[in-house]
């Protein structure tokens, strides 16, 4: 079973994504910000990280930069989710090594096939 770490400061988003992705057969762990995610990343070794961009303590871009800077995680797929629609934010995420980008609002029950492709 593939493990996904979902990082978002909004408890409703975390709950929704966790529930929908578990229905699709993924094992889900959650974190409320980048700092908590970094700690869990080292303990749980997920196959994919889905992170919000704007969060307190450590945002998604900072987490992405930290993950890509660590040789253990350079090939770890990372999807960014955000309500921001600016091309600049997307370009920055891609430049930092994001695997992909999901715009809020989104429908996680349609992610199954995309996530399976990323994880295969």
Please describe what this structure looks like.
The chain is of the alpha/beta class. It has one domain (3-119): Response regulator (Rossmann fold, 3-Layer(aba) Sandwich). The chain has helices at 11-23, 34-44, 60-68, 87-95, 112-119; strands at 3-7, 27-31, 48-52, 78-82, 100-103. Helix 2 runs parallel beside helix 3.
Would you state the CATH class? Alpha Beta
Helix content: 40-55%
The number of distinct helices, counting runs of at least 4 residues, comes to 5
Largest sheet: 5 strands, parallel
* Whole-number mean pLDDT: 89
Order of helices and strands: EHEHEHEHEH
Structural class: alpha/beta
In the CATH classification, which architecture applies? 3-Layer(aba) Sandwich
Proportion of residues in β-strands:
15-25%
The shape, in one word, is globular
Q: How many strand elements?
A: 5
Order of the strands making up the biggest sheet: 2-1-3-4-5
Task: Examine the coordinates and then state which fold CATH places here, giving the name of the CATH topology.
Answer: Rossmann fold
Cα-atom Rg, whole angstroms? 13 Å
Integer tally of domains: 1
What are the low-pLDDT stretches, counting only 5+ consecutive residues below 50? none
The H-level CATH homologous superfamily, spelled out, is Response regulator
């Amino acid at each position: 079973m593939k493990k996904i770490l979902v990082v978002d400061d909004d408890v409703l988003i975390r709950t929704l994504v966790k529930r929908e992705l578990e229905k699709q057969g993924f094992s889900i762990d959650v974190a409320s910000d980048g700092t908590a995610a970094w700690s869990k990343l080292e303990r749980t070794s997920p196959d994919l990280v889905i992170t919000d961009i704007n969060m307190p303590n450590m945002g998604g871009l900072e987490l992405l930069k930290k993950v890509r800077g660590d040789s253990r995680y350079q090939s770890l797929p990372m999807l960014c989710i955000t309500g921001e629609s600016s091309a600049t934010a997307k370009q920055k995420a891609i430049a930092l090594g994001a695997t992909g980008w999901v715009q809020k609002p989104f429908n996680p029950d349609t992610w199954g096939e995309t996530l399976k492709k990323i994880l295969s």
